[in-house]
Amino acid sequence: MADEQSIVDAQKHFADVDINNGSASGPEDDEEEVPAPGSIDNDLFAVTPTSEIHRRVSSSNLQDVLTDNGDYFIQVIVAEPQKVGDGMGSYLTYKVTTKTNIPKFKRSEFSTMRRFSDFLGIHDVLSGKYIRHGRIIPPAPSKNIISSTKVKMSPQQAEPGTPRSSEWVETRRAALQRYVNRTAQHPVLRLDVDFINFLESDQELPRAVNTATLSGAGVMRLFNKVGETVNKITYKMDESDPWFDEKITEVENLDANLQKLHSAFKSLVTTRRELSALTGLVAKSAAMLSTCEEHTGLSRALSSLADVEEKIELLRSEQANSDFFIMAEFIKDYIDLFSAVKSVFHERVKVFQNWQHAQLQLSKRRENRGRFELANRTDKLKQAQEEVEEWQTKVQRCQQQFDDISAEIKKEMERFELNRIREFKINTMKYIEDQMAHQQQIISYWEAFMPTAREIV
Predict the structure, then answer these.
(1) Cα 387 to Cα 393: distance, rounded to the nearest angstrom
(2) Whether the Cβ atoms of residue 330 and residue 367 lie closer than 8 Å to each other
(3) CA–CA distances in Å: residue 284 to residues 228, 277, 291, 319
(4) pTM for this structure?
């Protein structure tokens, strides 16, 4: 425990707040793992400026990744977004810094530069490898062509390497960091050779052209998604395991309610920002009124009121940012995660379809063999028997794949559920503490104003 505590203490300079979205560890039968029991910092949010809330909420999903002996950890920070080039050919790069002592990595601390398409590319690679085995692949942030075009067409930075102040750029940076940390916390994905290369290699990765929004591959991907959606709607699987029926219904209900909660938080953010702006107008009006008020005590009180309202305006703005960065973005992440969960369930349906198809083909081959036997067609009988044996092997293989993906999904969902409950508890507590801190600050402002108001005679 002393060793574990020393590791935790050594990491605290990376971030004040831990909103790690990784998966808890669990034993795997066929792949090497580095388990990840949770260790979360529950520091109280102080009342801070918007830029500080940005940094503290999104600066790192930093959670120890520990083995049974408490020896291993991994931390990833995505920082320093900077624009490269000008015009529509420009793009943003991010500095990805990793600190770990997992043996599969060559060094304990290293950095590399990655662009947005690199993050999407590694997500596609991991999805192609692991989703067919029933593993939940953390979703990468979606591409926003309108916002990215605005950044592309904006003037070049005065000094290369200076972080861009755009709120959208910072929001994307935070989303990329949450994504890469979720992946790093998965006990299998973090040991994948392509993911290690993504974090560790100083060389430029092969261009992920299929991530471009307007590319031909992107259009084909859109058609494929439409086909997948139609297949999900039209094909109803005869479920033999009640666990999957219950879990699918639970996921659908949670997803629908999270959608409503996210919509409510977006409305709250908008309303809170409007309230902040209106509070600023009150402050300006009170200040102007104090300059033309002849009564000395009343003028002084109006001036103090203007100061209080100006301070509250800033607090309202900080509360809006708290609503957005602590809860709204967190909920949005989980909406995307539930989409990834649904994709895994659908992958199981596809495996079941392959199994059913193989069984159908086996039945046809057996019928053919029977007809040849009745007709005494010895010239065709050998080939028919070989086809039957071939499809018997395929049926057995498909059944084994179905059993394997079903078992793997259950383990993945257990890990997912444990982390979901833990993270919602932590983020909700942080949000409540932050709101309480803001309200206490507002009360202190009004208490300080009361003596000035009472002096009016």
Answers:
(1) 10
(2) no
(3) 56, 11, 11, 21
(4) 0.74
